[in-house]
Structure formats: structure tokens, C-alpha cells
Amino acid sequence: xxxxxxxLGTGRAVGxxxxxxxxxxxxxxxxxxxxxxxxxxxxxxIARPEDGVCTSDLCAEAARKALAAAGLEASQLxxxxxxxxxxxxxxxxxxxxTQAKIGASxxxxxxxxxxxxxxxxxxxxxxxxxxxxxxxxxxxxxAEVLTTMVDWEDRGTCVLFGDxxxxxxLGPSDDDTGVLSTYTKSDGNLADLLWAPGCGSLxxxxxxxxxxxxxxxxxxxxxxxxxxxxxxxxxxxxAMDLAGxxxxxxxxxxxxxxxxxxxxxxxxxxxxxxxxxMVNVDRYGNTSAASIPIALDEAVELGRITKGQVAxxxxxxxxxxxxxxxxxx
Length: 329
Ligand code: UT7
What we know:
Order of helices and strands: EEHHEHEHEHEHEEEHEHEHHHEE
CATH architecture of the largest domain: 3-Layer(aba) Sandwich
Number of helices: 11
Strand order of the largest sheet: 1-7-6-4-5
Shape: globular
Number of domains: 2
Radius of gyration: 19 Å
Number of strands: 13
Bound molecules: oxa(dethia)-CoA
CATH class of the largest domain: Alpha Beta
């Protein structure tokens, strides 16, 4: 029995096409000034239909980098978990396509549906499975090609999202490194504030559902914003309490990258200085389940967090779902 799961390696991949705020002004009635001042986003990377890149392609690229960083072969993986709501297809899971692409022939594979919170939900699951000895090496990925669900006529949402995948390889830890706490929560009463209601059994695919754009993202941004600030504060506090940490014990806050104003509100609430906070929403936009793992990977790459230091991951998303985790690298 391991004490906990620890991060053995990280990796990321982004959509091949860059989309700037300037580009968006040619698609909808918006300005660089509005997008930057309301969200902090300047740029995002997307996978256009003509790019021929699907979610599992991004997963596989991020996974190969994470495996290389971990010094493991794909054949050593016991489980692949992919947090996503924009997978390759309805079934089978994007995790199984990823398995095939990287050649993880000894692994089980499945997806986790928790919108933006999918990666941190998956971290709780992976940690429990590794702690209990049920699995040894788990590849955990957060990945989205959200632009498949973007309404390019809705300026309130189409400026926000990017496409990416972030991966971590987890394995057993017997020292003080690894997952110190996880906290997960949801409230299904608020689902219709941020959802894509079409194409399932609720609103079946039909000419009418397509005309209504039921298959695309619908968001009441202002309401979501208020809940995001409240829930990320809740999750952050809970994860620190469960790990017995004070804000000063956290070396790097890695918040969900939806909006710089939500990140700043979270920092202010707990007195985290911005220099102890990972921010890349300006370059990638909101990549949903990929947001935390690509921020974590970039933080590792930049030396913003190093071995033995504590990262606090905190996220909020559709469902509503929210979650946080404290991890000593
Ligand atoms: O990742 C999952 C969680 N998601 C989030 O956390 C998102 C949370 N919500 C937000 O980040 C913000 O609510 C948004 C960035 C989506 C919107 O910012 P806001 O300050 O809440 O703006 P708003 O939706 O209340 O709209 C204010 C005004 C409206 O005009 P009127 O009605 O005041 O004349 C909008 O029509 O801004 C207008 N607007 C825009 N103007 C220029 C909305 N989108 C745009 C745009 N460009 N792209």
C-alpha cells in the first residue's frame, strides 16, 4: 500500500492553429480591449476542422511527453483516465483511442465527465486507486477540443475557449511527496447555467435541435462568474484544511484558467500573491479540463514549482462541479 499517488511526469499539447483577439474581431462584434479587460485572454490555440486533429491526438501528444518526463514506457501504464466533455465521439471513450495511439497495451481506459473539473476529479480517483494498490501507474489527462461546441455567432462565449490537453503520469509514493488532499463537489441544480443540452437523450438530435443550436455551449456568464468565485474559494479552503495547510504553506496556486478576474478574486480571498499564482489564461484561453494540467506542466517547465514544493490546484466548471487538490511535487 502506498501512502499516496505522486506526479512522476507532466506534458501538454495545444491545438495547431493560433487564434488571437484580433482574429476574433473579424468573426464577431468584439474588441481586443473588451476581451482583455473582461477575461485577461489575448490568444488561444484551436484545432480547426481542416487541421484534422481530434481530442485523442492532443491526449497522445501530451501523454508521450508526460511518459518521457516520468521515464516510463506506455506498456507500464495500468490505467488511463481522460477528463473531457469534447471527446472524439460519443463512444468509445477518448481514453481508449489514446491508449491505442500510445500503445498502452496493459492499461484499462475510461473517460471522466465533470466538465472543467474533470482533471481534478480524476486526480482524486487515481490517488485512491494507487493508494489502495488497485492500480500502480495511472496516466491522467484533461483534454478538450471545445471549439467543436463553440457557437461562433455568440460573442459572449466564442472568445473564451481554446483546445488543449494536459497529462500527468502518477505512481505510488512512500515519502512526503504526492497528493496531500483532494476535495470534489457538485450541484446539479445549476446545470443549465453552463451546458450543451443537445444530441443526447434529453434533446435528441433533430433538425429543430440543430436550428436551436442545442449541441453548442450555452452559458449565462454573469451567473457562472458569481458561482465560480464562491466555489473556487470553497474548494481551495477545503483542500488546504484537509491537508493541514495554511496559504503561506502553498508554493504555487494553479487555478482554473477561465478568467483573470476569477483568479485574482481567489488570490485576494486567501492572500496569495500573484507571483505565487500560475497564470496562462492570456495565452491559452479557457481550455476546460485541460486548463489545470497545462498550467501545471508549464509551471514545472518554467521552474515556477520544483520538487518538494506544494501546488494547490483549484477548479470550477459546468455541472456545476468544483474541486481542489494539494500536491507536493
Ligand atoms: O470554465 C467554466 C467556468 N466558466 C467561467 O468561469 C466563466 C465565468 N464568466 C465570465 O468569465 C464572464 O461572465 C464573461 C467573461 C463570460 C463575461 O463577462 P461579463 O463582465 O460578465 O459580461 P456580460 O456577459 O455581463 O456582458 C456585459 C456586456 C453585454 O453588453 P450589454 O448588455 O451590457 O450592452 C454583452 O453583450 O458585454 C457584452 N459582451 C461583449 N462585448 C464585446 C459580451 N461578450 C462580448 C464580447 N465583446 N466578446
